[in-house]
Amino acid sequence: MPDAEMTALLQAVLDEVCADIPAWDTTTRERIAARLRDVARSGRSSVDELKQAGRGALIRAPTMWP
Questions:
Q1: Burial class (CB in 10 A: 0-12, 13-18, 19+), 53
Q2: CB 35 within 8 A of CB 53
Q3: pLDDT the model gives residue 61
């Protein structure tokens, strides 16, 4: 389980990356949060690495169209 400092960092990055996502779009926000957790667990926890991973998850978010 992440410590309080890491939790706060992950939340801040999530909020920044999701700033333009509508509040009702919880699926996208959850997808980005999961990616941030995965990156943090792998030991990459700098702000820049987390932001890059979060933005990457946003860009590559799946859609219902092929």
A1: buried
A2: yes
A3: 56
Task: Give the C-alpha separation, 8 to 64, whole Å.
Answer: 32
> Which domain range does residue 41 map to?
4-17+24-59
- pLDDT at position 64 is 55
Summarised one tens digit per residue, pLDDT across range 16-34 is 999 999 989 999 999 999 9
Taking the C-alpha atoms of residue 17 and residue 39, their distance in angstroms, rounded to an integer, is 15
Amino acid identity of residue 17, one-letter, is: V
Question: Residue 34, exposed/middle/buried by CB under 10 A (0-12, 13-18, 19+)?
Answer: exposed
Positions of the chain with pLDDT under 70: 1-2, 61-66
Q: Is residue 64 part of a domain?
A: no
